[in-house]
Amino acid sequence: MIELSRGRRVAALVALALGGVAIGLTEFVAMGLLPDIARDLLPQEYAQSSSGAVGRAGWMITAYALGVVVGAPLIAALSARLPRKKLVLGLLVLFAAGTVASALAPSFDLVLVARFAAALPHGAYFGAAGLLAATLMGPGNEARGFAIVLSGLTVSNVVGVPLITRLGQAAGWRVAYLVIAGVFVLTLLAVLAVVPEVAAAIDGSPAAELRALRTPQVWLVAVTGAVGFAGFFAVNTYIAPVTTDVAGLSAATVPWALVAVGLGMTVGNALGGWFADRDLQRSMVIGFVAMIVSIAVFSFVASTPVGLFVGAFLVGATSLYLGPVLQACLITAAPGAQLMGAALNQSATNIANSLGAALGSVAITAGLGYLAPARVGVVLAVLGLALGVFSFAAQRRRGERVPATVSS
Q1: Which of 5, 103, 131, 392 has the most neighbouring CB atoms within 10 Å?
Q2: For residues 29 and 32, what is the distance between their CA atoms, to the nearest angstrom?
Q3: How far apart are CA 29 and CA 258, in angstroms?
């Protein structure tokens, strides 16, 4: 644990969490602005079929998710010897540049390319910043360190995403992304000012980080997250059309639906970080069961305004409860390559993002309606639970101890 004054430590943790706010904005704002993006970038398709154009615009979210999947392990391996603060600063520069490119790209295809590029530093940021936060907090706080950085993402969904979504609806989605780029620049300045220097792991090397990829348990946990967490994204990606076309509310209500999701995410993330530092296996099972129930409830009640908001809160809470849990499981599975383990969690989450958005798009364009993705999400969450249970059973069959906590 680095010796710092309490005020400096809090300021450093807030700066790292601010990066989570910016990432939440760049990742989730598109979900509330899909109709606006479709109208602007796909005008002819939108005139013929608004739902078809919105479904195709969903590939913008998929492109971002795929960028995370590619960038997380690649940057984690290449940056193993870099001091953590320098790594975080470099990643923030990449974020800002990619987000500006997304705002200025003139065509749908180029926007997809820009979103892919903007996503490359995503996983490495959460990995490096999460480990940096854990170092600042001291031993035994690995899951809560990650939860603090992830809390920026949940705060983003409560306050930032609704505000920027409203701005995008009023001034255009491109203006919204330029503002998000400004938040990345602000984060960079804050990290530069208050986060102390922290050396890379003494034995860190690209080879050591890549060795984690040869561990079966790492892949089992990653696949569990990729499949199971897709249930959340199948719901959240299409929250805007569910709000307007299913619940019958105005477009101005979409930001408030996002607030409900964000409030749930904030509560779930805090609980997940606390429980994950105590019992990983039980926390994962509880999280997936709760997620299955909440998505199923959403699919039945979201057609009413009250049901929409209650269901959105529950889906956000149960899904983000699993965030620190899966992160802790991956760090535990790769003890000699924690940056890779932390980054792979983001790869898994964004495979989930890509999978949920894509399967939701298929369901909508097949004419099954805007609630069909939620029903797909239930299936995905059930598969995630089954994979999670299997991963722990496989670990026992290999004669490995299933740890109760990250540090045990």
Answers
A1: 131
A2: 6
A3: 9
Contact 24, 160 (CB under 8 A): yes
Residue 242 has pLDDT above 60, yes or no: yes
Among the listed residues 131, 92, 311, 126, the one whose alpha carbon sits nearest the alpha carbon of residue 225? 126
Residue listed under structure tokens 């940057």: 75
pLDDT given at position 2 = 62
Distance CA 152, CA 185 (A): 15
Q: Which amino acid is at 264?
A: G
DSSP at 405: S
Q: Decide which of 393 and 92 is more confident.
A: 92
Q: Model pTM greater than 0.85?
A: no
User: Token pair of 271, please?
Assistant: 């609980």
Q: How far is CA 39 from the centre of its chain?
A: 26
- The Cα 331–Cα 326 span in angstroms is 9
Cα 276 from chain centre: 18
Element (H, E) at 69: helix 59-78
Structure tokens at 315: 């889906």
pLDDT band at 73 (very low <50, low <70, confident <90, very high): confident
